[in-house]
Design a protein that fits this description.
- By secondary structure, this protein is α+β, with helices and mostly antiparallel strands.
- Among the domains are: 113-155, no CATH class; 158-195, no CATH class.
- It has six helices and five strands.
- The strands form two sheets. Strands 1-3-2 form a three-stranded antiparallel sheet. The chain has a two-stranded antiparallel ribbon with strand order 4-5.
- Strand 4 (167-168) and strand 5 form a beta hairpin.
- The radius of gyration is 21 Å and the shape is extended.
- 13% of the residues are buried.
- The model is unreliable at 117-133 (pLDDT under 50).
Length: 195
């Protein structure tokens, strides 16, 4: 039994694309070949157990055992040595890929609190922020609301844009968002001199 999303793609999307772009062959229609899910483990340089927890998380999300990626060369500034485990990744193809995409689009993304990325139109000009980056930002914000397993991963983020830098605890905003809201008059009692 094939995945729902694959059936929808074959029955609805392929004929629509053929009609819209004038593809004569089904083989000319664009298709999804693979989905790569990866997780960088920067803290793993100091704590080797994080590699196992990261691999376990990805295995539970994707249903497939991940590969541990190792550093190709040493970088002293990041305290990374050649051969150190620094990330985990999974490449999904075929039925598992379609099942994962179906769960991602129908279960995971609708539960992200701020869904601007999934409903926003694609960028018009070259310098616009791509939709995927906005979705990643909102996913970061939703992820930060949960308490992490390790204190090292705890970080204050702006509740509007997700920036971790220039964070103001009193307002739970970054400096840029605070300034924008103050100029619009949304933050009462704030004058320009108090920035």
């Amino acid at each position: 039994m094939s995945a729902r999303l694959k059936e929808k793609y074959v029955k609805d999307v392929v004929p629509a694309l053929q009609k819209e772009f004038g593809y004569k062959s089904i083989m000319a229609v664009p298709k999804i070949e693979k989905v790569v899910v990866n997780m960088g483990l920067g803290e793993a340089t100091s704590n080797a157990k994080l590699v196992d927890t990261g691999a376990d998380e990805i295995a539970r999300i994707t249903g497939q055992k991940p590969v541990t990626r190792r550093a190709k060369k040493s970088i002293a500034a990041f305290k990374v040595r050649k051969g150190m485990a620094i990330a985990t990744m999974v490449t999904l193809r075929g039925e598992r890929m379609w099942e994962f995409l179906d769960r991602l689009m129908n279960i995971a993304l609708p539960r992200v609190e701020n869904r601007r990325g999934s409903t926003q139109a694609p960028p018009v000009h070259r310098d616009a922020v791509p939709t995927e980056l906005i979705m990643a930002t909102t996913a970061k914000i939703a992820k930060e609301l949960k308490t992490p397993k390790f204190k090292v991963r705890l970080r204050n983020r702006c509740k509007l844009c997700g920036r971790p830098r220039a964070y103001m605890r009193k307002f739970a905003l970054c400096r840029l968002c605070f300034r924008k809201l103050a100029l619009e008059g949304d933050v009462t009692g704030v004058t320009k001199s108090s920035w």
